Every structure is written in C-alpha cells, then in structure tokens.
Here is the input.
Amino acid sequence: MRFLTVAATALALTMGAQSAFAAPVEIKFSHVVAENTPKGQMANKFKQLIAERLAGKVEVKVYPNSQLFGDNKVLEAMLLGDVQMAAPSLSKFQKYTKQLQVFDLPFLFKDMAAVERFQQGKDGQKLLTSLQSKGLVGLGYLHNGMKQMSGYAPIRTPNDASGKKFRIMTSDVLQAQFEAVDAVPLKKPFSEVFTLLQTKAIDGAENPWSNLYSKKFFEVQPYITETNHGLLDYMVVTSAEFWTELDDDLRVEVKKALDEAIAFGNEVAAEKSEADRQAIIDSPRSDVVSITDAERQQWVTAMKPVWKQFEGEIGKELIDAAEAANN
Ligand code: LMR
Here is the structure.
C-alpha cells in the first residue's frame, strides 16, 4: 500500500513537472535563399520576435539555403508535419492552386507599388485562402522584387534569347513565357542554379537583384539585362492542421510577430533591390544592360499572348483586377 502511494505521488510529481516544463511549440521555418536576402532577414526577424515575446512557449528554428527542404518538397513536408512554415515563391504553388499563376504573367505589374496594391486589395487577400482545400493557410505576402534576365551574351531582344536554355521555377506560365520567345525553359531547383550556370549547362536565368547578388549568379553571368519583366514574391504558408491546433492566444501572438517580420522583410526587399543592383553594376564580373523602350516593347509583344493562354486557368476577372492595380 505504502509502495502504491509513493508510486502515485511520484507519478503525480512527474506529470506536474511535465506540464510546468512542457516543451515549447516548435516552428521549423525552411527556405531556400541566403540569410542576407529579404526572405532570410524576415525569417530571422520572426525568430527574434518570437524569442523575445514567447520564450518557453514557442521556438522558431530557421533553416536557410535549402538546408532542410528545397521548394519542390517543402509543401509536402509541411502537410506531413515535418516543417511548420515556409515562404516559397508564388511561382511554386501551381500543384496546389492555379490562381496564383496570375503573379507569373509577364509584364503584368508596372512596379512594386502596383504589386503591393493588388496583394493588399480584396482579390489579393482572397488568394491567401486559395490553398485551403489542400490543407495550407496563406499567412501573408512577402516581397522580393522584379526579375531580370541574365546570360553569357548580351540579351537585348527576344531574338537574343531564341534557342537558349533558361532555368525557370516550377511554373507552366514561366515555361510558356520563354517558349513565346523560342527559348528553351528548364524547371530546376534553386539550389542547382549556380552550378548549372557555372558549368554552362544552361545559358541563362531570370532572377531578382537580391538573388543574383546573394547567390553570386552575377559572377557566372557576364550580362544581366534590366528587363523587369516579371515578379518574384512569396507567400508565407503554414499547414491548416498546425495553425488550428495552436492555442488561440499563441496564434494571435505568432501572427502579430509574423506581420511585423514581413513588414521588416519588405523594407529589406526595397533596400536590397537598389543596393544589390548597384553592387552588381559596380562589380567587374557582370555588365548590366539597359534596353530601349522599343526593345522592351518587342518583349512585351512576344510574351503578352501568354496571358490569354492561361486566362482559363487563372480567370479573366483576376487578371483584370491585377492589371487594374497599375493605375
Ligand atoms: C527560385 O527558385 O528562383 C526562387 O524561388 C528562390 C527564392 O525563394 O527566392
């Protein structure tokens, strides 16, 4: 009897200790870019804010540079509970929803202010819920910036791209965009781009300034044309299961910290698209090529038919709404 009482007391003490010292909820945040990028800085800021505000309750672990998962695997891993947050580029969701393809349409947004207006407007906010039926929750958009085209030879007109191999993200719209100028698009993971360029297995790529700079693509691409032909932005996502199982008060605090981290990341994006562009211009490794309005118009004429090609999947109203954000 005495033994039973002692055992029961020991059990009660252990259980009490367990709840008092319950392990914090872990948020593994996986991404593919370097830490000195808008996404890298945003993720680190999020980790810092959570550590300051929710120590012992929630812990964020950031895995940059495709250390944990590449973007082709991360969403599956999220649905399995192996990772809780990620911010893939908007070009990488096509398996989960066709609507986000709107962001890939070439020459759709005239600048980042237009992108911001669309994302924060009614239609952009609705798109955050477009992954719901697949078990994913969009928590917010994060900017990187406009993409530039790079190559071994100067690319001024669509003719210069013809027959050349370009690495693209896993997006059929981007595939159609390069096919529209008779180029050869190849869907490859971000982690392979440097080697593909360095070994000349491909001729070129499209990237925003911060990725060109932080991954040293500019060192293996002697010409970068300032085309601003498309967008590379992100959606921060989590799984519906993780998000709904989080205690209500923690969910509110985590979302608040994330919103602040995103606002910070957007400031970094604006600064980096200027600073990293300038650093590349100043570097002897790469020439930045400016094109004339007439040359730009040739790209627009060649690539804009892609809008019509994807109108059925994306929806004309959504495309019109995105275009209207330019005004
Ligand atoms: C890419 O694959 O080029 C981008 O998605 C990388 C990134 O996350 O910026």
